Each structure stands twice: as structure tokens, then as C-alpha cells.
């Protein structure tokens, strides 16, 4: 247990928490559809770059929240949590692209409860 805690602290220090979207029991395909539609609805088309837009991140988040998604910080990502657009720089993004997704971990109920604290 202590070893697991140490690994988690080191991982957090190196990488920090990341933001994920969840809406149990939604699938990755459902998230991808909502993600794509919210990006397209809340962006300004990029000049001379078809399929790209400059996204209003706050409006994009409100769109996902309105569709029932919740955004949570996670260090270890259980199944059912998905990566979405996160503004790094204000630049055009591909509107039909989904960020690389984490591989879900198999969690016991006890591990899930510890993570939720």
C-alpha cells in the first residue's frame, strides 16, 4: 500500500492531474460524437484550413456539461473517463479529432473509493 502511494505521489509530481470527462454509462463513441459536435458549434472556422477552427474553450465545456458530461481531475484513469479538448495555445484545432485516450485500468471497488476521496 505504501509503495502504491509513493508511486502515485511521484507520478503526480511528474505529470500532475489531468482533466477527463465522464457520463456513466456513456461509451467512447458517445463522447466522441458530443466532443466533435461541441467543438464545431463553439469555434470560429480557421482561414484557409478546412476542418479546423479556433475553439472558445469555455463555451465548449458548457456544451459538454449541457449534454450531461462532468469534468473531473484524475491521476489514475478508470474506465468511462475520456480526454477532451484542452486549450494549450490559442490556435486552430482539427474539429473532428479526439485527443489520444488513456487505456482504462481495471479497478476494484476499494481502489475506486480511494481515488474518489
Describe, in plain words, how this protein is organized in 3D.
The protein has 117 residues and is of the alpha+beta class. The protein has one domain (17-116). Helices cover 39% and strands 18% of the residues. The protein has 4 helices and 6 strands. It has helices at residues 2-15, 28-41, 57-66, 109-116, and strands spanning 18-22, 43-45, 52-55, 70-74, 81-82, 93-94. Strands 4-1-5 form a 3-stranded antiparallel beta sheet. The longest helix has 14 residues, at 2-15.
Task: Give a quick rundown of the structure.
With 117 residues, the chain is of the alpha+beta class. It has one domain.
- Measured between the Cα atoms of the first and last residue, the distance is 16 Å
Query: What do the pLDDT scores average to?
Result: 82
| Helix segment tally | 4
Number of domains: 1
Write the H/E string, N to C.
Answer: HEHEEHEEEH
Query: Main beta sheet: strand number and arrangement?
Result: 3 strands, antiparallel
Helical proportion, percent range: 25-40%
Rg computed from alpha carbons, rounded to a whole number of angstroms: 16 Å
Amino acid at each position: 500500500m505504501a509503495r502504491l502511494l509513493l508511486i502515485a505521489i511521484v507520478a503526480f509530481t511528474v505529470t500532475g492531474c489531468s482533466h477527463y470527462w465522464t457520463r456513466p454509462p456513456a461509451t467512447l463513441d458517445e463522447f466522441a460524437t458530443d466532443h466533435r459536435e461541441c467543438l464545431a458549434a463553439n469555434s470560429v472556422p480557421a482561414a484557409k484550413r478546412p476542418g479546423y477552427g479556433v475553439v472558445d474553450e469555455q463555451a465548449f465545456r458548457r456544451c459538454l456539461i449541457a449534454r450531461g458530461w462532468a469534468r473531473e481531475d484524475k491521476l489514475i484513469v478508470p474506465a468511462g473517463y475520456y480526454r477532451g479538448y484542452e486549450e494549450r495555445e490559442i490556435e486552430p484545432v482539427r474539429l473532428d479529432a479526439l485527443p489520444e485516450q488513456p487505456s482504462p485500468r481495471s479497478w476494484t471497488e476499494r481502489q475506486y473509493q480511494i481515488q474518489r476521496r
